[in-house]
Request: fold
Amino acid sequence: MTQLDAPACHCENEPWIHRAMLRTTATPGRFRCPETLHCLHGTTVENGRIADHWRSVPGECPWAGTKVTEYHRCACGRGPWIKLRHLRLFTRKNLTGPVISLVCPGLCPGPHIPVHDHHICDHARDNHTRCPWSGTRIAPVGIAPPLFVSDPLSG
Reply:
């Protein structure tokens, strides 16, 4: 069995997405947060990260602080990845196994999107375009922060 070399560009140090994965809003410079169920007013990208933003319920947005790049691939050729912590709506095999489907963070219409081998399966954003979230790796780490908690650390 061969062991893969660690990426030289440190792309595996933290989750990252590229700017084309974020849906724009009617307001220039604002994007729809992938946590669209509770982040209704959108967000911005500041210093290469999704900025902290207003939410319709108390609690931390799991996307705030996520690295956003201009490139679809890192310097070593790997694609974007996120943690399971970023997702709220997904299904697991036998309730505790690997994620097998999810609601697309790219706000694609339709049913849950299949997940295979920890990667979002290829799917269409609309009738003409491939969703930029297709192929994104999901690291099975963490769970989404709790809702309706204004300061999760002071509990």
